[in-house]
């Protein structure tokens, strides 16, 4: 069995707490790896290493930092397949999907390579007589990142490349369910020349997380995960005086208007609902069909969903892999088996799927629930599996009202040929990321990612300009260089005014 240890101060540090987690290959159900679960003392060792490294990294030149990031980008590019293979082995998603995850993470490394332009300050000359004012942004110190299982490489890369480009040092606590990719990311960063201690990885569970939240030397915390934990992280880190961004769960809706291209809408719904077996925070989990198109749309979705090939992520023919754990698979199945009793029509039932040769994998097929009511469990909860709910409304206004009543506000999409309706939707919908005829509107690296309402706690979205702001703090410098020929200064107790 493989062992995943911590990466602290530029080297592997063996887990010493005596506590280990088990990592399973979701396709076979076999335990393949044990992962160290850090004690508070091990978390402290990582923060101490990061604090020591900050002494020189925080004041290193921009060209030194970007030089390393460019080398890092090249190494990541060369190791795409290896990273993707680790993701598939522990998460279960198919290899092509894992490669997509690596590519989207690389976008943020590329953004970080250009940190020179993002960290440029501002200068106003002569704001008052012989007085200039400049605004600069400086790093925070040691920052922590806590990440979910569903993107074991991309979500860490949403955080640490920008954080370290800004001059911070970083402690990453990845998901204990699929920890290996994080270590490879850190090892490649060291190979690229990143000084020891700038990027550290501690593995663990709630004990490690709560130690980071309480640690006096952690200045800020980035979190991505489920809503209840995001709420806990935001409340606890804030109470401990830290800056915090905590991205939570989702229930993303897609509104389909009667004039939409229904084939394109059905393609998009199937891709976004069932890609990565629905284990995406930007998955479409509810389609709202407006007007009389409901039956036709459901039949087009069904036709497409029935053709999806399910199998191990290592098989190039597979389009959808297994779920992360057997317990999660059983929970997802319970929503499907309970749906009919709560009024839904079960158009496709994916429960009970077996995959030949992989009988112990965490399999579930695609499920499609029609006429789902807004007070049913399948609608209200984030299922995080391959289950798509369809709801019907008579009008656009009813559709938007239904969607805005959701406590979540991560991503959303509208499918229509009507530009005016799409424009109204952009302004009226209560969500942080909107797609117009685009099913998974995950913003590119140079725009920021973040939801509204219970999908994000804190002020800053992640990466893009918000990421740079989150990982730096502003300072305004007001300067006066008196001329020897100036009149002598004098005492003036009045509040200073500009003149
Ligand atoms: P999770 O909340 O269970 O775990 C996330 C992290 O928190 C992990 O590192 C885990 O070890 C830690 N954690 C778990 N329980 C904890 C506790 N009680 N106290 C302290 N730390 C704890 O999430 P997950 O199951 O790994 O990931 C799936 C969730 O993440 C879904 O809800 C999904 O929508 C969400 N997600 C959101 C986004 C986004 O951008 N908004 C992106 C990806 C995933």
Automatic annotation (TrEMBL):
CDD domains assigned to the protein according to its UniProt record, in alphabetical order: ALDH_F6_MMSDH
Domain of life (superkingdom): Bacteria
Every Aldehyde dehydrogenase domain range: 21-477
Keywords: NAD, Oxidoreductase
InterPro entries in alphabetical order: Ald_DH/histidinol_DH, Ald_DH_C, Ald_DH_CS_CYS, Ald_DH_N, Aldehyde_DH_dom, MeMal-semiAld_DH
EC number: 1.2.1.27
Gene Ontology BP annotations: L-valine catabolic process; thymine catabolic process
Keyword match Transmembrane: no
GO MF term (any one): methylmalonate-semialdehyde dehydrogenase (acylating, NAD) activity
PANTHER family linked: MALONATE-SEMIALDEHYDE DEHYDROGENASE (PTHR43866)
Family annotation (NCBIfam families): MMSDH (TIGR01722)
Protein name, UniProt field: methylmalonate-semialdehyde dehydrogenase (CoA acylating)
């Amino acid at each position: 069995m493989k062992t995943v240890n911590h990466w602290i101060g530029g080297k592997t540090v063996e887990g010493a707490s005596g506590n280990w987690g088990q990592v399973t290959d979701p396709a076979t159900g076999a335990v393949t790896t044990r992962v160290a679960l850090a004690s508070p003392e091990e978390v402290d060792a990582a923060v101490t290493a990061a604090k020591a490294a900050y002494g020189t990294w925080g004041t290193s030149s921009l060209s030194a930092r970007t030089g390393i990031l460019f080398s890092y980008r090249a190494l990541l590019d060369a190791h795409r397949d290896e990273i993707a293979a680790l993701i598939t082995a522990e998460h279960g998603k198919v290899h092509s999907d894992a490669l997509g995850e690596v590519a989207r993470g690389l976008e943020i490394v590329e953004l970080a390579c250009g940190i020179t332009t993002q960290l440029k300050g501002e200068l106003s000359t002569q704001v008052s007589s012989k007085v200039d004012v400049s605004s600069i942004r400086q790093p925070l110190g040691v920052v922590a990142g806590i990440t979910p299982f569903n993107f074991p490489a991309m979500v860490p890369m949403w955080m640490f490349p920008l954080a370290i480009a800004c001059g911070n040092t970083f402690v990453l606590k990845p998901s204990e369910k699929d920890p290996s990719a994080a270590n490879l990311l850190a090892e490649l960063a060291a190979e690229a020349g990143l000084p020891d201690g700038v990027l550290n990885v501690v593995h663990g569970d709630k004990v490690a997380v709560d130690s980071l939240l309480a640690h006096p030397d952690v200045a800020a915390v980035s979190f991505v995960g489920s809503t209840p934990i995001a709420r806990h992280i935001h409340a606890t880190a804030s109470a401990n005086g830290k800056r915090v961004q905590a991205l939570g769960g989702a229930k993303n809706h897609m509104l389909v208007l009667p004039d939409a291209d229904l084939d394109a809408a059905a393609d998009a719904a199937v891709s976004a609902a069932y890609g990565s077996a629905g284990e995406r925070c930007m998955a479409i989990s509810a389609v709202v069909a407006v007007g009389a198109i409901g039956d036709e749309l459901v039949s087009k979705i069904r036709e497409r969903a029935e053709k999806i090939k399910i199998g191990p992520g290592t098989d190039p023919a597979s389009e959808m892999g297994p779920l992360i754990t057997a317990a999660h698979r059983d929970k997802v199945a319970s929503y499907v088996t309970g749906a009919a009793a709560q009024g839904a029509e079960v158009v496709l039932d994916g429960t009970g799927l077996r995959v030949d040769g992989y009988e112990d994998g965490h399999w579930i097929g695609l499920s499609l629930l029609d006429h789902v009511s807004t007070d049913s469990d399948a609608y209200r909860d984030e299922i995080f599996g391959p289950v798509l709910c369809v709801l019907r409304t008579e009008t656009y206004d009813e559709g938007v009202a239904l969607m805005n009543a959701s406590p979540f506000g991560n991503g959303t999409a509208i499918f229509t040929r009507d530009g005016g309706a799409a424009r109204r939707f952009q302004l009226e919908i209560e969500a942080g990321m909107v797609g117009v005829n685009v099913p998974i509107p995950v913003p590119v690296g140079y725009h920021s990612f973040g939801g509204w309402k219970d999908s994000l706690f804190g002020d800053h979205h992640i990466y893009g300009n918000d990421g740079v702001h989150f990982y730096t703090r502003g300072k305004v410098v007001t300067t006066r260089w008196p001329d020897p020929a100036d009149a002598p200064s004098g005492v003036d107790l009045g509040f200073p005014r500009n003149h």
